[in-house]
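#dry-run=false #mode=assembly
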Amino acid sequence: MDIDVKSLHPLEIRILRHVTRGEQITAERMIDELDYKLGQCNQAFSWLMGKGLLEETRRETRVYYELTELGHMQAEVGLPGERMFNLLKEHVAHSLPEMAKALNLEQRDIGSAFGELSKAGVFGMDEQKKAILKSDALPDTYQVIKQLILRAQEHSLCETDLDEDEQRVIGSISKKRGASMVPFKIVEREEVVYALTAAGAAVQGQLEAAGVTGDELGALTPAMLAGGSWKDKSFRSYSVASPPGRVLLGRRNPYGEYLQWVKDKLTTLGFEEFDGPLVETEFWNGDALFMPQFHSARDIHDVYYVNNASHAREIEQPYLDQVAAVHENGWTTGSRGWGYEFDHEFTRRQVMRSQGTVLSAKTLPKAKIPGKYFGVARCFRYDQVDATHGADFYQTEGIVLGEDVNLKTLLGLLKMFAEEVAGAEEVKYVPGYFPFTEPSIEVHIKHPILGWFELGGSGIFRPEVTKAMGIDVPVLAWGLGIDRMALMHLGLNDLRELFTPDIESVRTRRGK
Amino acid sequence: MPKIEVHTGRFFELLGDTYTDDQLEEILPAAKAELDGRDDEQGILKIELNDTNRPDLWSAAGLARQLRVNQGAQAPFYDFFSTDLEQFECEDRVVEVDQSTTGIRPYIVAFAVSGKAVDEASLKDLIQTQEKLCWNFGRKRRSIAMGVYRSDLITYPVQYAAVDPDTTSFIPLQMDLPMTLRQILKDHPKGQEFGHIVADLPRFPFLQDANGQVLSFPPVINSAEIGAVQIGDEQLFIELTGTVLKDLILAASIVSCDLADQGFTILPVKVVYPYETEFGREIVCPYYFQEPVSADLSYVNSLLGEELSADQSLEALRRMGIYAIADEQKLFVTIPEYRNDFLHPVDVVEDVMIGHGLGRFEPVMPRDYTVGRLTSAELFARKVKDIMIGLGFQEMMYNYLGSRKDYIEKMHVDGAEYIQIANPMTENYEYVRASIMPSLLNSESVSGNAVYPHRIFEVGKVAFLEPSDNSGTVTRNALGFFSSDSAIGFNEINSELAALLFYLNRAYSLREVQDPRFIEGRAGEIIIDGVRVGIFGEVHPAVLESWGIGMPSVMCEMDLDLVMAL
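#status=ok
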């Protein structure tokens, strides 16, 4: 078997370097000889077995004696009888309660030790009912118990390591369960005996050849640096190609990152960003865009109405009067208008902004000439939510104002978007329809992966839109289908995924 | 956008040639149309029409006419239109309007058809035209409703009146027994669909002939006899009722031109009103009412960025089926009978563009120099995002609409400031979010399986009622952030808030606040220059329970517009 010795843990290496073929390998040995903890032995054995470097030869059950809490205490301060003996040695006579108080022991512990040692002829009672010494030495068993306790402090005692006398003594002060009143508890342990396999011996040879002992340094610590202890040691090699642990980091949402890229792109192309409120009036959402209040063109935009702030108090002047006049008779725009009576109540009604073009129209009164503007606007539509329709979504829209603006510069602008924003190879223009632009153009692009698709809609704002906002130069208006490109960029095919609440999904999402 | 289905064979017949799908896709843009699909089994082409102002294109005949002319064919000449100067003789074909229709459904126009038996393709196209015209152009029959009848069963003059809905009855289509108009509203499928248009009126519109034979109850349903047109019928009577006279006349023109293109003879019908209309007391349909439009050639060229001659412009318009003349660099345009979408000279420009061929215009880069710039709110938001990411938070983006349950009930707040949608599609999208916190908790509630700790934030908009504003609402840019883990508490979020505001360079103070969303004594208001800009703390276990969240959580929300301004 071919094993990368770097994949071995120091606990494994030290065992492999320590043992020879044919030997019995047990946890007890490793505890004794390599100073392992039992848990470390079990871990190392199971790893080595898994790699086929060790094999199990037999297993047997052994009895061990371990100190109880009481046993540990007695190891520190001595046995009750021993302490009573020492006390009486200094101060001749004590009553039993006096001794209990002086030694901070329970009455019944004093009682049983006194009884036991009286029987052995060590203690006696004088006529004042006080305990006195009758012998100047404790019985031999006390020495045996003391020795056993001290040895057990080092490690638990295996039955087979005790002589007959010791076994008899320890048996009288041990219990299997509920051992709080005695210094030892009895633990039965299954002991497995292992042997080095041929493969194990081969790896052993590899380790020896490489000079790897298992004592190489693991993590470099400040103490090593301070003391220079690293200087006469070597470092354990890590398995560099092993899979790394996971890091949870702070990071941008990839969709937000994409929108930011689009915004940055547009600013580098000379566009200034606009923004606005989510709640709009019918005036801005449709009337200002020369969409007749009751015409089917408004069917395109099935909007959400606001219930508890249903109407704005007033609409900005002079725009209200100008737009109303444009709808009714064209005002001074050269249009004949829609020829209906403009509804001043309806125009104040509030809706959730349904199209980004609203912000383009609102920008007109304060726009610079020449000027370029854009916005990435959250819009709302009365639509069944599915893979291609969200209840709310972003639209990327903008305008270009200037004396020289015309159809050909509109085509040029669309070409620039197609190339710069969408990375298109080919561009195609077809006549389109929007209520607020004339002429209207749709731009289709050939994408390396998606093939032909509609990148966006555009046109020249109708004079009915611009003149009512006090603008006398032509204005290009455009909108780009950014979400479609964002989905492609993110490798998604469901619009709902863009606003997913699922943390893991966002954490693992990457752009192309 | 209207979508229509056309009989492939009839469509190619009308086009004068057959076309492959690719060829169709080449020529359809001239009518702002797209091939939407094809059903060869039924011999049908599905076509989407993008121009909602061109109802004349929503039929096989109308679409074919536009495309045929654009391909170079001669525009058809229609000789059956009356004008204000000259009306055709109608013989006995007269509709008499009763005074009672005033304020009910005041206008009706009509014409008749003969000379050819109706076949399946033309009947289907006629029914489709009727549906599209009345639905998309006629506001779902509110402003235009159209009826087609077997005119050989009609005795003129036809009577149009408003009648008592409870005492007038007839046998409607799809029924065997007479029903009152009121019953039709209640029990007939078409009554249930369109009855609301007339339901509140004192009297209902009603159409019968000189012998009292019922034609229909417009805009709801035809009678089962005169109103049941079938394949093979040779004599048709077509009427349109509604509220906007010009739209009715235009719709009649569209249908008559379509039928004329298919070889039918159009017979004029005179409608006699007891009151004045914008076209007089007597209107003979089909009727041409359009005014000529003029456009300066220089205006056309300045918008197109081109130097077209007068002749080039006239040729372009001719390819759109438009007759025009030029006089001293001015174009005088005669609007086709079936169109009424020329509101402004700019509308001439688009037809010149399409007629000339969009592909013949070269893209030119805009030359004006302008400075690009982001809003200050966007710049500030980016700064905030950078710090939040440095603090180890994942940016999230959420929908802005949600349910009362999520936004209000699970948050244990009264939601008084929440903007409510009057016409939600479902209760899942009934409220506009006034806070980012429900969005964050929703994320946590669906992400129990994601490795902890969770640290998320969003910079986005919230909107809420604000009576002092003109709109009664305000929209704000806000930051919300949230953490959850088995051991997390006030100290963590307090430190993160301190770090954020330190790097935003804002001095602030905290004030303990009682808020049902947070554990009492573990929530603070963030104050900058005496203004409350936000709130943060340990999320109340009752709120966590409502969301089904099993992990201790902390969160914070801040009004970034306020923080930026202070």
